[in-house]
Amino acid sequence: MIEVTRDVFRLAQVFTISRGSRTEAKVLTVRVTRDGVTGWGECVPYARYDETLESVEAQIRSLPDGIDRTALQEALPAGAARNAMDCALWDLEAKQAGCRVWELAGLEAPLPEVTAYTLSLDTPEVMQAQAAKNAHRPLLKIKLGTPDDMPRLEAVRAGAPDARIIVDANEGWSAEVYADLAPHLLRLGVALVEQPLPAGEDDALLGVDRPVPLCADESCHDRSSLPKLKGKYDMANIKLDKTGGLTEALALRDAARAEGYDVMVGCMVGSSLAMAPAVLVAQGAAITDLDGPLLLAEDRAHGLRFDEAGVHPSDPSLWG
């Protein structure tokens, strides 16, 4: 039996990127029950990829009850619906086998990974205050992508002088803007820029010097994306809601590394249930960005543990 429910998690504060603001995370939770055992997974439909709660729920409900992970890869395209089902099936298989998902997948036992903490887009003054409040964190991610980014970046660096900083432009720049900003990004110690240009326009990055490494986010969904990244990006951001689940995420990670890309593992804003499978993918990643639960005012029971070591692997009472 496949059950789909909608869940809403309040955010700890308004979360703003260049595309808009939100005060809650709306997710779909999938439960697959067979022979009295239930596995579950979570996805976050994303409007940027023409997904809605309704469209993703309809995709999931179209699946036959007995579908397995192998058939699922062909039944649904990469995206949120396949992610929730794939992760639910991994959880189900592990529970049926009496072992952990990482063992089923032939992986080493997972360890904590230091994760980025995201600062919402706001005025420079507010962002500096946010940075100062979170200056103890080793890695801060800044949401930018506007014509007034430099004052914000300067403010964050002033608020957190010792933190490592990465920037997410959310497709808001051009190649010329990146080239103009690059010396300042270097000066301020920015380690990485995510998706500076719109995904459909990033051929403009070909031949552009990249003194600050660039990471493909909206331009990288699954393994089929990799040929289009050559000469434009240094890193691939793997998100399970883009890959369509843990199965493809692990395959994309290995393929990206084989082609010389560093790996970042990111997330949409969701609960610990959505982050748990991604922690397995994030093992050894150059950048881990799985702070979704830290942005929530409420989380699932048995949520992931975050401390100075980073985000810890899930307890089996949550997932996997």
Automatic annotation (TrEMBL):
Domain Mandelate racemase/muconate lactonizing enzyme C-terminal as annotated: residue spans: 124-215
Keyword flag Nucleotide-binding: no
Cofactor binding: number and manner: Binds 1 Mg(2+) ion per subunit.
GO molecular function: metal ion binding; racemase and epimerase activity, acting on amino acids and derivatives
Top-rank taxon, per record: Bacteria
Names of the cofactor(s): Mg(2+)
Entry annotation: catalytic residues: K143, K239
Annotated residues for binding of Mg(2+): D168, E194, D217
Keyword Chloroplast assigned: no
EC number: 5.1.1.-
InterPro entries on file: DgoD-like, Dipeptide_epimerase, Enolase-like_C_sf, Enolase-like_N, Enolase_C-like, Mandelate_racemase_C, Mandelate_racemase_N_dom
Keywords: Isomerase, Magnesium, Metal-binding
A Pfam family of this chain: MR_MLE_C
Alphabetized SUPFAM superfamilies for the sequence: Enolase C-terminal domain-like, Enolase N-terminal domain-like
UniProt cross-references to CDD domains, sorted A to Z: L-Ala-DL-Glu_epimerase
Major enzyme class: isomerase
The family this protein is said to belong to: Belongs to the mandelate racemase/muconate lactonizing enzyme family.
UniProt name for this protein: Dipeptide epimerase
